[in-house]
Amino acid sequence: MSRFAQVKDLVLSLESDFEKFYDKGNQAAGTRVRGGLQQLKTLAQEIRTEVQNQKNASK
Q: What is the pTM of this model?
């Protein structure tokens, strides 16, 4: 379940940058948002692989 916590923490850490970019037009915050979303994508792929491996191992 710690992987879920990692995803949650990452999303929550991006909240202020989302606000800065969308509400205030801060371009640097947009760069940080894109970087964070890339990290989220990588983390999600790692979790998908783990889940698939565990599922296959239980067969």
A: 0.87
| Dihedral class, residue 41 (left if φ above 0, else alpha if ψ from -120 to 50, else beta) | alpha
Q: Yes or no: say if 42 and 6 are a contact pair by the CB < 8 Å rule.
A: no
Q: Looking up tokens 């239980």, which residue turns up?
A: 58
Tens of pLDDT, residue by residue over 13-48, are 999 999 999 999 999 999 999 999 999 999 999 999
The one-letter amino acid code at 24 reads K
Q: Which residue has the tokens 């995803």?
A: 7
Q: Spell out the residues 6+ positions from residue 17 whose beta carbon is closer than 8 angstroms to its own.
A: 29, 30, 32, 33, 36
| Six-digit token string for 7 | 């995803």
